[in-house]
TrEMBL record:
Gene3D superfamilies in the record: Ribosomal protein L33
Chief localization: plastid
Organism: Caroxylon passerinum
Pfam families in the record: Ribosomal_L33
Biological process, per Gene Ontology: translation
Keywords: Chloroplast, Plastid, Ribonucleoprotein, Ribosomal protein
Name of the protein: Large ribosomal subunit protein bL33c
GO molecular function terms attached to this record: structural constituent of ribosome
Keyword Ribosomal protein: yes
Family: Belongs to the bacterial ribosomal protein bL33 family.
Amino acid sequence: MAKGKDVRVKVILECTSCVRKSVNKGSRGVSRYITQKNRHNTPSRLELRKFCPICSKHTIHGEIKK
């Protein structure tokens, strides 16, 4: 059996509101999560609502490039 592209790939989710605010000098960093997605079921970029400890609330975390 030939090995092709993996169906399940690891993706990094980054807080979208922290990225916009990172222009400030006093920012503490960016919230990131690592998860997996199925390439066949979700070909577009993944966006999930996750808790951001820097913003102290639930925000949208979007998939970023590796």
